[in-house]
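Hi,

Apologies if this is the wrong queue. I'm a grad student, and the batch job for Protein/nucleic acid deglycase HchA from Actinomadura macrotermitis produced an output file that my downstream script rejects. I'm not sure whether the problem is my script or the file. Here is the sequence I used:
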Amino acid sequence: MTRVLFVVTAAEHWTLNDGSKHPTGYWGEELAMPHKAFTEAGWEIAIATPGGRRPRLDEISMGRTAGLPGTIREVADYLSSIQDALDSPAPLSEMDPDDFDLVFYPGGHGPMEDLAYDEVSGALLTKRLASGRPLALLCHGPAALLAAKGKDGSWPFAGYRVTALSNIEEKLNSFGRKAPWFLEDRLREYGADYAKGKIPLLPHIEVDRSLYTGQNPGSAKQLAKRLVADLA
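Support response: The file is valid. Your script probably expects a header line. Output copied below for reference.
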């Protein structure tokens, strides 16, 4: 059976450049839709967070501006069906990426606060990349890549073609304009070959060797579909 590790942020806020703490967590659609697709494919899923802390759902991701009403209802219903698993995640430090066929990082602004700096997650990502086995990150999930470091101190994802939430998309939210840094900019600074779709908010994915990335929440289903097809 195909086994998947979901690495989910445990952050409950995002510290903005004015010092304020914006409530956040994981983005509903980005966790629910891939989880549902993988479950329907018959895959076994484990959920882990830094410290094994219960992840927080970003309430904005369930609001009227987050997507079509039908999609929001579908996300809410699915998250409710897996609430027990979300309430009791495993500590990320106890997870070995070699035990899984796929490692998947959903987004939300939470990764900008914790996973972007988490050494345990960074080491897991470095090991996973070296294995050549599938690794996928969505929207703000690629912020976790910034914590990865090779033995020589270099960034192992340099030169990889990557997408993630663009600067334009970040600034569509009023609080996003207060970001202490933008993910698109930081990925470029680290040496990623960053790419994005021509039209903001529309689905866009990139695949470079074993690395799969999706640009925004709307890319969740497309990314999951590609992963199911490639891992079949």
